[in-house]
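Field: sequence (string)
Field: structure_tokens (string)

Example rows 1 and 2, in order.
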Amino acid sequence: MRSFRFGFSLASHRTSAALAETVRTAESYGYDSAVTVDHLGPNRSSPFLALLAAAHAGQRLRLGTYVLNCGFWNPSILAREVATLSRMTEGRVELGVGSGVVKSEFDGAGIPFEPFRQRMDRLEATLDELDRLFAQETDLVRPPLLLGGTSDRLLRMAAERADTVSFSGWVQVPGSPVGTLGIIPAEQADERLEFFRSVAGDRLPEIERNVFVLDVRVTDDRWAEAEAMAAEEPFLTPEQALETPFVLIGTVEEIAEQILRHRERYGFTSFTVQRPAMEAFGPAIELVRKAENAALLTAAAPA
């Protein structure tokens, strides 16, 4: 079974000093990667410039896009940006790409928000073109590829060509306006993981499974916090808030136990948290790694 990897999103920083402090803090907790999102609008950061700044702030973290919105990018320009970042960071780049789901950002940029099928067609064509363009590079190969989503088509695509598949906890709420999203409960995550296993076939052991953690709440009273979350998130009951892999609630020790259970249940070995939860989640990393090492020692001990 794969070892755990932990990442966090950089979000937007106002100064390079603030970003550097975030990177140093993350490295002290034992995070493995820093990732950037790809959104448009006020107070948003360039994903590639932020990753380059993070690369100079720390020498250990992997650097990923989580995920690029291919509707915003011409493939040739995107290939140039990815190649440049890879050269400037000694190959620490991981390329995450998605189809885009936030209609208001397309509208604000004057970019047509195509129906889902066309957006997925564009994603697949972008990946094909990136493969072609990176094949022409004399000193680089395309970085490891992450694809994120939960639709059948995306999961089939990830099963065929991704190094990492990322399961997002958001889903469009049926019968609601486009962009109305709810958190996926555990039973739906079970179904999506089972579908992915079925389509991945022999490639399943080769593909890292990542989960995008939407909320981390460190508390001594899990139930009270779950009730509070259910009041804010109308598509989850308190019981579902405690069970879904997209939310972590409890003491640091309880959160570490949840991570270990999610690996057993879903095969998740890669966890990415949002920037506001980076410090809260950080202490759980050491506990998870200690438990993982203890399990390895037990497995290696003679009978």
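Row 2 begins here:
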Amino acid sequence: MITLGLERRTKHATKSGNLSTATSASKARRVGLVVAGYLLLLSVWSFLSVFSFNSYILPPPWTVAAEMWHLLLNGSAIVQFGASIGKITTGFLIGAVLGAPIGLLMGRSTYWRNFFQQPMLVLGNVPGLTFAVFALVLFGIGAIGPIVAVTFVALPYVALNVAEGVRAVDPQLVQMSTVFGRGKGDIARSVFLPSVVPYLFAALRYGFAMAWKVEALTEVFGGRNGIGFMIRAEYQEFSVTGVLAWTGFFVLFILVVERLVLARLENRIFAWRGGR
């Protein structure tokens, strides 16, 4: 009996070790592919900069990286990013606060779905350039225009995704919860919320990316500070290096938010089903 138990524990430890090794190898392979992709992109960029264009028209990656480092050291990057993040956070929160109740109504009521469906689809398909131009016309140069533009971009993403999450709830599951004496609060927390959260994360991921682009575009047209404003300023000075440096900060911020914030938060919330 003792020998049999030892053999079972040994087999279990061996399987666990093999699984851990396979997981580590899989992670290393994914990291290697990501690094290879970035190296390929930088190689193509360097080749075009050296052999197809001159360094004034298309600066090489190391020149842009040096400019980004300079902007970090003198504090310009932090100040301008703070201005842009404040505007996009305010606009996105307003859009989410307005869009979540609309999505709830659309998911629970046919009447409200018919009432809001077309306006939300129209808002979701309007080009971001249109929001930027109208924000500039209506509110002029300042912080209000970018905030309003971000609000109108985030609103349809949140509303439509929340509505789909509510509609995805099985009605029989709700009926069963009611039969077993669960209150509306328990049903909302234990039935509707787990169904809505994945759709809400999709809205946050894609809506934030679109809102960030529109916010920067609005700053290009009518901002007094922020990333878009600095891109316009560098363009007016015919500095391609500056334009690419601020665009590089833009891309890095999106990657940080996606991989280090949203992905980790999603893995933590959905840990019960194995994460992402």
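free_text_note (row 2): DSSP finds ten helices and no strands in the chain.
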